[in-house]
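Before the break, one more example. Copy the sequence into your notebook; we will annotate it together after we see the structure.
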Amino acid sequence: MNDIEQIPRALISVSEAARVIGVSRSFAYELVASGLLSSVRLGRRVLVPVSAIDDLVARSRVDE
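Here is what the structure looks like once it is written out:
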């Protein structure tokens, strides 16, 4: 394993974010389009800050 693989990533792809939160890729893009899941655009790529997933979960949490 090289040093670059050990650096935590601040941004992940929408597809990776979909896998993390357990939804389809198309639904993850819907979340991004609606603004419910924050994203950044770098060139043509749409990336999701890892912290945005935690924020989405915190806002969506239903306390019983």
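The chain has three helices and three strands. The chain has a mean pLDDT of 91. Try to locate both features in your own notes.
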